[in-house]
Design goal:
By secondary structure, the protein is α+β, with helices and mostly antiparallel strands.
Length: 291
């Protein structure tokens, strides 16, 4: 069976299965993360025969608009099942099985590249959730060797604001524009690039210490304020994988990650216009602060 190694968030992931390996070799976003050798900590095996799915309990049903599909996430005892269907005819696109505590995910054959990309993201999220490793829905810019996570719902201007940093703040660059990896290492938060970067191709296989977390909102003027610990918790919580937050096995560890992150770095709320002054305000507030 074909096999490929990816270095993700300081961990080695083995992906197996002809269709998945073929896709990863052709996918520009994966190339910077391909590793030549090493012992994999996690494995995702495609083209597998999955165990018979019991009825179980539905944790989440959500749509994946990129390919007009619907996704189900269920659990039964220690077993978790993820399935993606075509929304129009309910034909299956991919299914996955994960057993609590294991270091591998099994998946069915999948020939749809969008379903492959998303299902692999979901599988890695399950494997990492209990190992101080998670994706964060955010745009992340690096300045002076430190990463800043900009959070917000889709359409609030995360990408616009980070682009303003790139155009107006010296020594700044984009690390990821949709789904960077957050880890806790020896009690400190770090941010890694990933092969998933939304509509902005930005696939950087590097790690940076986290400097700050900023939640954005649109406003008729630019203002920025430091958040209290409860406010910071509420700001970061929605940006971690919401589906995994529906189950205590994953959520307990993810909540610990939130607590570790907001205890280690400051969090802010930036109400702003899409202009250069907003970028300068956030840069000066974050990097000129005493902490």
């Amino acid at each position: 069976m074909d096999r490929i190694l990816l270095s993700l968030g300081g961990r080695l992931l083995a992906v197996e299965g002809d269709s998945a390996v073929r896709f990863l070799h052709q996918y520009d976003g994966a190339r910077p993360f391909i590793a030549d050798s090493g012992e994999a900590e996690w494995t995702v095996r495609y083209d597998e025969d999955l165990p018979e799915k019991p009825h179980g309990d539905l944790l989440s049903e959500f749509t994946f608009s990129e390919i007009n599909s619907v996704c189900h996430f269920r659990y039964a005892g220690d077993d978790y099942f993820y399935e993606m269907y075509n929304q129009a005819d309910r034909k299956p696109l991919v299914a996955m099985h994960y057993r609590k505590g294991e270091n591998s995910v099994c998946a069915s054959q999948c020939d749809n590249t969008s379903a492959l990309r998303f299902s692999l993201w979901f599988a890695v999220g399950m494997l990492g959730a209990c190992s101080s490793f998670t994706f964060v829905h955010s745009s992340v810019v690096v300045h002076n060797g430190r990463a800043v996570l900009f959070l917000g719902e889709s359409g609030t201007g995360k990408s616009t604001h980070t682009r303003l940093w790139l155009n107006n703040i010296v020594d700044s660059h984009l690390l990821n524009d949709d789904s960077p990896i957050l880890t806790i290492e020896q009690g400190r938060p770090y941010v890694y690039g990933s092969p998933w970067s939304g509509k902005t191709p930005c696939y950087v296989a590097r790690r940076f210490p986290l400097k700050a977390v900023v939640r954005l909102s649109q406003a008729p003027q630019n203002t920025m304020s430091r958040l209290s610990i409860p406010q910071a918790f509420a700001a970061l919580h929605p940006s971690l994988p919401p589906v995994l937050m529906q189950d205590t096995h994953f959520a307990d560890s993810l909540l610990d990650m939130i607590s570790d992150t907001i205890s280690a770095v400051p969090s802010y709320h930036l109400a702003c216009l899409p202009d250069a002054d907003a970028a300068r305000l956030s840069r000066n507030t974050i990097f000129d602060a005493s902490i």
